[in-house]
TrEMBL record:
Keywords: Transferase. Gene3D superfamilies: 3.40.630.30. CDD domains: NAT_SF. It comes from the Bacteria. InterPro entries: Acyl_CoA_acyltransferase, Glycosyl_Hydrolase_84, GNAT_dom. This is Acetyltransferase (GNAT) family protein. The keyword Isomerase does not apply. One of its GO terms (molecular function) is acyltransferase activity, transferring groups other than amino-acyl groups. PROSITE patterns: GNAT. Residues 2-200 form the N-acetyltransferase domain. It comes from Microbacterium telephonicum.
Length: 205
């Protein structure tokens, strides 16, 4: 029987695999980019490295994670750390792309280079943010709700007033899921849907 537990060192390969297999608007992104490792180095591993206390997994019978929720309590502080300490290790591997390139890998690499250059647009009211992914065998069984409840309970205990996330607009099932949990839509760029929820009383924004 799967169970939710805190992230532990050694879970990183499983987190990277989950991230890759759900990165294309919820579908498997293997081979979508020239380098599959890019997804996890942007959207999973730095979260567990910086804030393991806000990282929770659903582990299977063999204790290997099959899903996760990863959060940070202060998005701007996390982005500053990411820009100064995490991403520079990859400058040679993934150099800054030419401005205006629409190649998908260039767009994703550009996210890495741009993170932390400007304040997050949602951090003033929803300072925390999260990423959540589940492998297909766990989907539709309530694990997503339980993971988010686990994270938001931890953030609320630590006095964090709100949390946001940004979903691919193509992933309509995920957007509907977040809205059922009480997240409400925030102003968003084309192609994505940002959603947030307040945590001081558990009520949506």
């Amino acid at each position: 029987m799967p169970e939710i537990r805190p992230f532990r060192p050694g879970d990183e390969p499983a987190l990277a695999d989950i991230c890759l297999r759900t990165a294309d608007a919820g579908a498997d992104a293997t081979g979508v980019l020239a380098d599959d490792d890019l997804w996890a180095e942007l959207f999973a591993l730095p979260y567990a490295a910086r804030h393991p206390e806000y990282a929770f997994v659903v582990a299977g019978d063999d204790d290997v994670p099959l899903g996760y929720v990863l959060g940070v309590p202060d998005t701007d502080a996390f982005n500053a750390w990411f820009a100064a300490q995490w991403w520079p290790r990859f400058d040679a591997r993934w150099p800054r792309p030419d401005a205006g390139s629409t190649q998908r890998q260039d767009v994703i690499v550009g996210i890495g280079h741009g993170r932390g250059e400007t304040p997050d647009p949602y951090a003033a009211t929803h300072p925390a943010h999260l990423h959540i992914d589940l492998l297909p065998q766990l989907q539709g069984q309530g694990w997503g709700r339980r993971l988010i409840d686990t994270l938001t309970d931890a953030l609320r205990r630590d006095g964090v007033p709100g949390v946001h996330l940004v979903a691919d607009a193509r992933n309509t099932a995920a957007v509907a899921f977040y809205e059922r949990l009480g997240f409400t839509r925030l102003p968003s760029d084309d192609g994505v849907v940002a959603l947030g929820i307040t945590l001081d009383d558990g009520a949506p924004t």
